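[audit] Reproducing an earlier prediction to check determinism. Same input, same settings, fresh worker. If the tokens differ from the archived copy the diff job will pick it up downstream; this log only records the rerun itself.
[audit] input (713 residues):
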Amino acid sequence: MFNIYTIFLIFRILKPLHVYLGDLTYDTVTISAESMPLNIGYVATYCKKQFGNNVEISLFKYIKDLEKAIRESPPDILGLSNYVWGKNVSYEMLDIMSEIDPHTLNVWGGPNFPIDFPSQEKFMKKFPKVDIYVPVDGEVGFSNIVEQALKADSKKAIKQKVLSKPIDGCVSRGTDGKLQYTIPVIRIKKLDEIPSPYTTGILDRFFDGKLTPMMQTNRGCPFHCTFCADGKDEVNQVNSFSTERVKEELDYIVKHRHENTRNLIFSDLNFGMYPRDQETAKYLSEIQSKHNYPDFLYLSTGKNQKEKVIKAIEILKASMPLWMSVQSLDKDVLKYIRRDNISTDHMLALYPAIKKAGLQTRAEVILGLPGETHEKHMTTLRELIRTGMDEIQVHTCMLLDGSEMGTPNERKKWKLNTKFRILQRDFAELSNGKKVMEIEEVVVSSEHMTFDEYVDLRILAFVIYVTNRGTVYDPILKFLREQNLDVFDYFCKIKDDIGSAPKSIQNIFKQFKDSTINELWDTPEEIIANYQKDSEYQKLLSGEAGINVMYHFLAKVTSQFMDDWAEYILTTAYDFLKNSIQNNQSWEKKFNDISHFCEGTAHNTLGKDRMATNPEFDFNYNVIEWIKSVNELSLDNFLLPDPIKISFQLSDEQFAAVQKSLEMYGETIVGKSKALRMISSTNLWRRPVIKKSMKLTVRKSIGSTDIVWYDHD
């Protein structure tokens, strides 16, 4: 005899539960969140594992595709991800769904959800079209929703059935309107229990040449940073997929990737910290050797255990940098943000070993953290520059719904003053004519830092970001250090002496400052109302507004004014040296070689004619070998027996790699600002090609080190 649940399942076999899952990206001017929808892929495969043919699941990444589908064939359940870069458009889809078919169950999930109960109630009140929310990992919570929905005898009864009682792993809105909780967070410890979204084929249609494959080898973070949505206690335990599973997925990606896909994203929060990561890195290296893919790996390396991190990624070298996410070097600030369990001193002490391994390094810093002053932030930048970081990115402190810093208590405790701004590229006009856009809340002052100081530090961060980027200006920075000069003071001089710069660079500085101030609004409502006007929305489309100021002006300098930038910073370096070195003019000849080397490396990096413009200079010093040397030998030791001519060129491989990124993201400044984040420095900058042979005629012994000049083609 059948029980009632069995009867409902039989009904569902005949007519399965119709589910749409979406992880949306904007693509109005260029694609914004370019990762394949791995997150909803996990939710879908786990759900299919539990219920088989009783559920029919469709996945969506593009806004227009989802909007068309819900209008033409409304689902029984609509589940969308909630991240800061897609929050508003996801909610608009839920709102549209409610208008089209109020019986559809609206489910939202993701880390962008408050962690304190009063704020959760406020959140659900602000977004009334959300029936149920699945925080943190979503597989179990969503499957619990589906299990309840399958017990309903009709679509009209689904909401009543699901919302009639609390559901484990979810925060739901009861039939009386009150929030319901049981176990709000359920995490799967053995992640292989989730079938692979890749090898099951559910993600196949997203290998479209526009999206980038995303991998995950583990989940969770052992750190408790208050500014991060992954800093909460619920995700402190790190759970892993098996190494065999990871290898199978990598093989599948290589086999199915689109020919235009050159990069790979990892969502791991601390890659390299765990012994198994070394095996993953080795396998990735083997794939690169066999398939010439991926060109660039976008991932976050571990905050501790840097010796392990170095071992894990040194074989990948040029395809990825080593991230040094310090955020601040001030001990009090680190304590305030609960980051004092990360050994920053130890991490920085490993820098010589990092350079010996040939790894590029990127340091991340956050401006506007609790307790941070102008002086403390300057000290952090100074110390990072002294270590010789290849790139330093300064992010404005962002308040996220899922972070401890975003709670009312933390805001009040640190007297954080915030403004709102549009996220770059994250805007679209829906078929109903409504303009939707994503907005972030950022800290622009506090009791410890004024707004004017915030603006000043943003300008300095821009100078450092453009000048201390990759290898392009390494020679001049190394030469300044060789003269015992503080490179940080040099960067400050670039900022302060802007009046002597070419007009184009003066304009860049002015535009950067104006944009830094004008991008800020008092409320999200003001932003939304303003850009409903067609004339204002056009500014978003043209790139006049709604930009990421740092990336936008980096792209502008790199693509349009790199020669002018080089002229200015090299002239500033000359003045800096002239005023610092007394009664010694021998540096000028060396400086001339170094200047030419920087000019050649930086010349015309993104121009359409870049393959045909190859600057050439004569050199008296072997700058190439001097840069490579790890023994800190002075340039004097690299004097050539005869001058040589060097041409600065881009290889066909460099051109192709950069061009594919430009084609993917677009040739506009907005597109280039995105592309530059995904292009490795080895592909971006020109390489020196020696035109005249260097004979093995000179050999100098310096201490225990022999310097030898060899023949070059």
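[audit] rerun output stored. Observation attached for the diff report: The CA atoms of residues 364 and 393 lie 5 Å apart.
[audit] end
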